[in-house]
Amino acid sequence: MAFEDLPLTRTPSLAPAPPRVPPSGGSPTRWIGVAALALVAGGGLGFWWMTRSQPEQVSPPPTAATEGAVKSNRPQRQPWELPALDGSDAIFRDAVATLSKHPMLARLLATDGLVRAAVLAVVQIGDGKTPVVPLAVLRPTTRLTIVGDQQGRLDSASYPRWSGPTNALVSVSSSDAAQLYVNVKDLFDAAYADLGHPGGNFDEAITRAIEVVVATPVATDPPLLWRRPGYVEHTDAALRSLRPVQKQLMLTGPGNQQRLVAWLRELAARLDLNIS
After folding, report:
1. Would you kindly state where each structural domain of the chain is located, as residue ranges?
2. Lowest mean pLDDT among 203-207, 223-227, 262-266
3. Quick check: helix, strand or coil at residue 151?
4. Residue 95 confidence class, pLDDT cut points 50, 70, 90
5. Which of 31, 82, 154, 186 has the highest Cβ tally under 10 A?
6. Which long-range contacts (CB under 8 A, 24 or more apart) does 26-30 make?
7. Where are the alpha helices (DSSP H) in the chain?
């Protein structure tokens, strides 16, 4: 039997059959644990600038002071002129082929307000929420199923629903993603400021989001779930106490989850982000 994934804002309950409280903001939809996919796609603008003809820049020879300094993994931003935040969508769509040929990226870039959507998704994940609205276009076309009556284990055949978005993310080199992000970071900072973080550094939001993802437990066996009207919930009290986005991430399957975490750790290392 098919069901929606976990609700977005539902408060976990220890009772065997709690009454359903409709979540605010509309019906819950499926989540992609790959908000970083939107971030990487936004980085396509930087790659577009990289492919333009640029005057050759000669790096100065190292001095005694810099030779002894700790080497940074973070790429250096090139001084390119960027378009206005609200006028960047067309270039993003044109640049998607330079990042990856994966169709999921093309589907994402067909939407509007790309940078703002990416920033909102990352911020929501850092807050423990599921980024349903900004990443709605990436939701699977099939529904989650469980094996059993009133409760049962997640059918492992549901895991491939998330393979497409995961494959799209890891199809982009983490080193290329880091370079592209650094090149267009001013756009992400501007969108982040518009969300109520004036003068904020979007690196902070990325760090929080990655920490939430990597802290999510990985299930060795399909989790045991309760059937609810239109959705499912974890039966294990410890799993019910997780943040909504973490509970949802566990439904993507251990393979997809581990690949996502590995890619995000690589990205964090290349950006010199301190992930706990």
Report:
1. 31-48+74-139+162-217+254-270
2. 223-227
3. strand
4. low
5. 31
6. 27/230, 28/4, 28/130, 28/132, 28/231, 29/4, 29/5, 29/132, 29/136, 29/139, 30/4, 30/5, 30/132, 30/139, 30/140, 30/143, 30/144, 30/161
7. 35-42, 44-50, 64-67, 89-99, 103-109, 114-126, 163-170, 174-194, 202-214, 237-240, 244-249, 254-270
The model's confidence at residue 92, banded by pLDDT at 50, 70 and 90, is low
Contact (CB, 8 A) for 115 and 86? no
Whole-angstrom distance, CA of residue 7 vs CA of residue 10: 6
Q: Do residues 44 and 106 make contact, with C-beta atoms less than 8 angstroms apart?
A: no
Is the distance from CB of 178 to CB of 74 less than 8 angstroms?
yes
Q: How far is CA 193 from the centre of its chain?
A: 19
Res 105: pLDDT:
79
Selection from 122, 139, 118, 149 nearest residue 27 by Cα? 139
For residue 220, what are its two tokens?
Answer: 């060795």
Dist CA 80 CA 274 (whole Å): 27
- Which pair of structure tokens corresponds to residue 212? 């939430």
pTM comes to: 0.76
Give me the pLDDT at residue 272, please. 97
Selected residue with higher pLDDT from 263 and 106: 263
Q: Give 198's contacts (C-beta < 8 A, 6+ positions apart).
A: none
